[in-house]
Protein backbone atom coordinates (compact mmCIF):
# COMPACT_ATOMS: atom_id res chain seq x y z
CA UNK A 1 0.00 0.00 0.00
CA UNK A 2 1.48 3.34 -0.95
CA UNK A 3 1.58 6.32 1.38
CA UNK A 4 -0.28 8.38 -1.24
CA UNK A 5 -3.15 5.87 -1.13
CA UNK A 6 -3.42 6.21 2.64
CA UNK A 7 -4.12 9.93 2.38
CA UNK A 8 -6.34 9.65 -0.70
CA UNK A 9 -9.39 9.02 1.47
CA UNK A 10 -11.51 10.66 4.14
CA UNK A 11 -11.90 8.00 6.83
CA UNK A 12 -10.10 5.93 9.43
CA UNK A 13 -8.12 2.90 8.37
CA UNK A 14 -6.98 0.37 10.95
CA UNK A 15 -5.15 -2.91 10.49
CA UNK A 16 -4.16 -5.22 13.35
CA UNK A 17 -2.32 -8.51 13.19
CA UNK A 18 -2.32 -10.88 16.16
CA UNK A 19 0.05 -13.85 16.34
CA UNK A 20 -0.97 -16.83 18.43
CA UNK A 21 2.46 -17.54 19.86
CA UNK A 22 6.01 -16.23 19.93
CA UNK A 23 8.59 -18.35 18.12
CA UNK A 24 12.33 -17.73 17.86
CA UNK A 25 12.04 -17.95 14.07
CA UNK A 26 9.75 -14.88 14.10
CA UNK A 27 12.64 -12.53 14.90
CA UNK A 28 13.79 -11.90 11.30
CA UNK A 29 10.26 -11.28 9.98
CA UNK A 30 9.38 -9.11 13.00
CA UNK A 31 12.51 -6.98 12.54
CA UNK A 32 11.76 -6.62 8.83
CA UNK A 33 8.24 -5.46 9.66
CA UNK A 34 9.54 -2.97 12.25
CA UNK A 35 11.99 -1.57 9.72
CA UNK A 36 9.19 -1.08 7.18
CA UNK A 37 7.02 0.64 9.78
CA UNK A 38 9.87 3.02 10.69
CA UNK A 39 10.47 3.81 7.01
CA UNK A 40 6.77 4.54 6.41
CA UNK A 41 6.58 6.78 9.49
CA UNK A 42 9.68 8.71 8.45
CA UNK A 43 8.28 9.28 4.96
CA UNK A 44 4.87 10.35 6.29
CA UNK A 45 6.49 12.75 8.72
CA UNK A 46 8.44 14.29 5.85
CA UNK A 47 5.20 15.01 3.95
CA UNK A 48 3.62 16.73 6.95
CA UNK A 49 1.72 13.97 8.71
CA UNK A 50 1.65 13.54 12.48
CA UNK A 51 3.17 10.17 13.38
CA UNK A 52 3.35 8.01 16.48
CA UNK A 53 5.27 4.78 17.07
CA UNK A 54 4.64 2.64 20.17
CA UNK A 55 6.83 -0.36 20.92
CA UNK A 56 6.30 -2.46 24.04
CA UNK A 57 8.89 -5.24 23.80
CA UNK A 58 7.83 -7.00 27.01
CA UNK A 59 4.30 -7.40 25.66
CA UNK A 60 5.33 -7.99 22.04
CA UNK A 61 3.16 -5.05 20.95
CA UNK A 62 3.97 -2.58 18.16
CA UNK A 63 1.63 0.15 16.90
CA UNK A 64 2.08 2.98 14.43
CA UNK A 65 -0.40 5.76 13.82
CA UNK A 66 -0.34 8.32 11.03
CA UNK A 67 -2.65 11.34 10.99
CA UNK A 68 -3.03 13.95 8.29
CA UNK A 69 -6.06 16.17 7.94
CA UNK A 70 -9.14 14.13 8.75
CA UNK A 71 -7.45 10.81 7.98
CA UNK A 72 -6.05 8.48 10.61
CA UNK A 73 -4.26 5.25 9.71
CA UNK A 74 -3.25 2.72 12.34
CA UNK A 75 -1.30 -0.51 11.95
CA UNK A 76 -0.50 -2.80 14.88
CA UNK A 77 0.84 -6.24 15.47
CA UNK A 78 1.04 -8.11 18.71
CA UNK A 79 1.27 -11.56 20.20
CA UNK A 80 -1.73 -13.18 21.84
CA UNK A 81 -1.36 -12.98 25.60
CA UNK A 82 -4.00 -14.99 27.48
CA UNK A 83 -2.84 -13.57 30.82
CA UNK A 84 -2.99 -9.88 29.89
CA UNK A 85 -6.11 -9.34 32.02
CA UNK A 86 -4.84 -11.32 35.01
CA UNK A 87 -4.47 -9.27 38.19
CA UNK A 88 -1.04 -7.94 39.05
CA UNK A 89 0.51 -8.83 42.43
CA UNK A 90 -0.50 -5.34 43.63
CA UNK A 91 -4.11 -5.99 42.61
CA UNK A 92 -4.16 -9.27 44.52
CA UNK A 93 -2.94 -7.57 47.72
CA UNK A 94 -5.59 -4.83 47.61
CA UNK A 95 -8.79 -5.67 49.50
CA UNK A 96 -11.89 -5.71 47.33
CA UNK A 97 -14.69 -3.38 48.35
CA UNK A 98 -18.13 -4.74 47.57
CA UNK A 99 -21.18 -2.48 47.64
CA UNK A 100 -24.74 -3.28 46.88
CA UNK A 101 -26.44 -1.30 44.14
CA UNK A 102 -29.32 -0.75 46.56
CA UNK A 103 -27.13 0.85 49.25
CA UNK A 104 -26.30 4.57 49.02
CA UNK A 105 -22.62 5.33 48.53
CA UNK A 106 -20.91 7.38 51.24
From TrEMBL:
Protein's name in the database: Uncharacterized protein
Top-rank taxon, per record: Eukaryota
Gene source species: Caenorhabditis remanei
Amino acid sequence: MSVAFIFDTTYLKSISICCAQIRPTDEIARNYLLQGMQFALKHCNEIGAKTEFVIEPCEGYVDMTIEKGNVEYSFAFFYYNPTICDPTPEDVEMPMVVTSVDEPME
